[in-house]
Design goal:
CATH topology of the domain at 402-560 and 569-590: Nucleotidyltransferase, domain 5
Structural class: alpha+beta
CATH architecture of the domain at 402-560 and 569-590: 2-Layer Sandwich
Subunit structure: Interacts with UvrB in an incision complex.
Number of helices: 20
Radius of gyration: 32 Å
Largest sheet: 7 strands, mixed
Protein name: UvrABC system protein C
Family: Belongs to the UvrC family.
Keywords: Coiled coil, Cytoplasm, DNA damage, DNA excision, DNA repair, Excision nuclease, SOS response
CATH class of the domain at 402-560 and 569-590: Alpha Beta
Function: The UvrABC repair system catalyzes the recognition and processing of DNA lesions. UvrC both incises the 5' and 3' sides of the lesion. The N-terminal half is responsible for the 3' incision and the C-terminal half is responsible for the 5' incision.
Shape: globular
CATH superfamily of the domain at 402-560 and 569-590: UvrC, RNAse H endonuclease domain
Oligomer: single chain
Number of strands: 20
Strand content: 15-25%
Length: about 700
């Protein structure tokens, strides 16, 4: 724990103006980002008597080793900069709402010639109309299924649409009347677009006029004794009413609003959001966060607004945002929301009427979500804490290993040797800090040597960063200066960036390194750390056969009980490292199978390679072409053509490429076998997929 007075700036150094500040720990990692109307007054609150601070704030300031700030012109700029830094640095002490899913939207692709209705998640595209979000994708599909009877808009994929147009036969929905079948020209593009516009109008809440129009048409059909048409219109009206019942009107006047409620206690807070569009609740979502600092309800609301509307892919800001408490000050947040929407936004607390009643419903949902989360979380926190304590006791560590890194080596019969590094903090996976390695120091299969290389490369970066920032204790020497000559060779250490607070750095060390393997792998990892002069990081290995834990220099393993939570956590870490490594290894192998002899031609970029293949049709035809014929391709000069011809002439025909899923030899568009250009003349195993998977590490 650091003494805050050791890094406290003098009051005269801190400007009395709006700005954003960052606390960093001893490893220069940003652990907290905040904004202030007056930096001087705000930072002074952190450097008072520790006994007066909130426990979590006290933990933050004693974990920090330095503080820095950036002055801005207005509070709106401070709000924007704070949000961008929180997203960039992912500080551990900031409020971060955990949302365990990507919420689906009902989307209508009005940017296409024949608009399509579908479920969409993630990034929002220009020209697409979105409705939602919905809590579940099945809720969207149920609604769409009811509406297709009245608005038979296309829902098929591009492939299905093209196939129907080619064969002249619509899909099943076209036969049963739930698609107007523009693919076979039953309706024109203009008529289909009009249907899509009507669908969007209905989803946007303009339902009354359309229903009255249908009822009038039904009455007219009955008067004209066209009873079948009248019956169809009657069924259409019933289908629309049924769809409307699923989204009951809760607010009058076709209101567009988001209602945000917060339920909190001393440790955690739950946020619930109801999305009301056209007076109907179109979607609901919720987040939960740990309160790692003393924070007001208004500040929690401000963070929720940032997360909800801050991303480029975030939700559109409605006309009204109803909240249980206003941020302090409220004006910068109001200006920011107005800027995001492009017109005025009403940010307020509902006082009476239907909106107050609906806010009470949202509040009850938030309270229930917090209670449910605590029921689950209590068990999780207790279990993880017990697991870390058991690991510390079994390995005789001074404290619980809050950060664990695990390494695994993967290859296929010695080819495409790669390694993975996964990170667990507080017993939970931190996927943003996962890393992948290609083994570059040698060729062939040697797990022990590979493990030594990976550990060396990872912790050499840590030492380089530590030396660069001058964080050596008195009398301590940079560890890598003690390495043997061969270990001092540069091995894939890229230049470190100036701004070193990002959590994706290699600069943050673990308390425990776990390797997938037994005594040899553990010894290699320990030797790599010793060569770098690192002696404050524990190392262990987990052997898969008997799930034994091996320590460096020990002849006998540490055997944890099968029911041990500590063993279960180590298994999860090891299995995650294995999954991450083998995924990368398969990706590399698939990329190698797709490689081309043109990849080895110096100065030939991707655009010109594609132009060559498009012109000749295949590498085989390009290889038989003359220099003059190659020069006919746009962008290819004579010198480049000579280089291409020489490179293809030197490359012997490669072995047939094998489909990794079926074991069959793949053919190009001319019916000739495709080849793997990176291993010319070397046959590719065409054994059964099950055999090959069994040989993977």
């Amino acid at each position: 724990m650091a003494d805050p007075s050791s890094y406290r700036p003098r009051p005269g150094e801190i400007p009395d103006s709006p700005g954003v500040y960052r606390f960093r720990d001893e490893h220069r990692r940003v652990i907290y980002v905040g904004k202030a109307k007056s930096l001087r007054q705000r930072l002074a609150n952190y450097f008072q008597d520790l006994a007066n601070l909130h426990p979590r704030t006290r933990t933050m300031v004693t974990t920090a080793a330095s503080v820095e700030w950036t002055v801005v012109s207005t509070e709106v700029e401070a709000l924007q900069l704070e949000y961008s830094w929180i997203k960039e640095y992912d500080p551990r002490f900031n409020v971060k709402y955990r949302d365990d899913k990507s919420y689906p939207y009902l989307a209508v692709t009005m940017n296409e010639q024949f608009p399509r209705v579908q479920v969409m998640r993630g990034h929002k595209k220009k020209g697409v109309r979105y409705f939602g979000p919905y809590g579940h994708a099945w809720a969207i599909r149920d609604t769409v299924d009811l509406l297709l009877r009245v608005f038979p808009v296309r829902t098929c994929s591009a492939g299905v649409f093209k196939n129907a147009a080619r064969t002249g036969r619509p899909c099943l929905l076209g036969y049963i009347g739930k698609c107007s079948a523009p693919c076979v020209e039953r309706v024109s593009a203009e008529e289909h677009r009009e249907l899509a516009e009507e669908f969007c109008d209905f989803m946007a809440g303009r339902t009354g006029t359309y229903l009255r129009r249908l009822e009038k048409r039904m009455t007219e059909a009955a008067e004209e004794m066209e009873y079948e048409r009248a019956a169809r219109l009657r069924d259409d009206i019933e289908a629309l009413k049924k769809a409307m019942e699923k989204n009951a009107v809760v607010l009058a006047d076709a209101t567009d609003a988001d209602l945000i409620a917060v339920a909190e206690d001393e440790l955690e807070a739950a946020v619930q959001i109801f999305h009301v569009r056209g007076g109907r609740v179109r979607g609901q979502r919720g987040w939960v966060t740990d309160k790692v600092e003393e924070i007001t309800t208004g500040a929690l609301v401000e963070h929720a607004l940032q997360q909800l509307y801050g991303e480029e892919t975030g939700d559109a800001v409605p006309k009204e945002v109803l909240v249980p408490a206003l941020p302090d000050p409220v004006e910068p947040v109001q200006q920011w929301l107005t800027g995001r929407r492009g017109s005025a936004v009403s940010l307020r607390i509902p006082q009476r009427g239907d909106k107050r009643a609906l806010m009470e419903t949202v509040q009850r949902n938030a309270q229930q979500a917090l209670a449910l989360h605590k029921t689950k979380r209590a068990s999780d926190l207790t279990t993880r804490s017990r697991a870390l304590e058991e690991i510390a006791d079994a390995l005789e560590l001074d404290s619980a290993p809050l950060r664990i890194e695990c390494y695994d080596i993967s290859h296929l019969q010695g080819d495409d040797v790669v390694a993975s590094m996964v990170v667990f903090e507080d017993g939970l996976a931190r996927k943003s800090e996962y890393r992948r390695f290609q083994i570059k120091g040698f060729r062939g299969q040697d797990d022990v040597r590979s493990m030594h290389e990976v550990i060396t490369r990872r912790f050499r970066r840590y030492l380089a960063e530590k030396e660069r920032t001058g964080e050596w204790a008195d009398g301590e020497e940079p560890g890598h200066a003690q390495q043997p000559a061969d270990a001092r060779q540069p091995v894939d250490v890229p230049a470190l960036k100036d701004d070193d607070g990002r959590p994706k750095r290699f600069a943050y060390p673990p308390q425990l390194v776990v390797v997938d393997g037994g005594q040899p792998q553990v010894a290699a990892a320990r030797r790599a750390l010793d060569e770098l002069g690192i002696d404050d990081i524990a190392v262990c290995g987990l052997a898969k056969r008997l799930e034994e834990v091996w320590l460096p220099g020990e002849d006998d393993p540490v055997v944890l009980p099968r029911t041990s939570e500590g063993l279960y956590l180590l298994q999860r870490v090891r299995d995650e490292a294995h999954r991450f490594a083998i995924t990368y290894q398969r990706t590399k192998r698939a990329k190698r199978f797709r490689s081309s002899p043109l990849d080895d031609v110096p100065g030939l970029g991707e655009t010109r390679k594609q132009a060559l293949i498009k012109h000749f049709g295949s590498v085989k035809k390009l290889r038989s072409a003359t220099i003059d014929q190659i020069c006919e391709v746009p962008g290819i000069g004579r010198k480049t053509a000579e280089t291409i011809a020489a490179a293809l002439a030197q490359a012997a025909p490669a072995a047939p490429a094998v489909n990794t899923a079926t074991g069959e030899i793949m053919e190009d568009e001319d019916g000739a076998p495709e080849t793997t250009a990176d291993a010319p003349g070397e046959p590719v195993s065409a054994g059964a997929p099950e055999e090959r998977r069994g040989q993977e590490r």
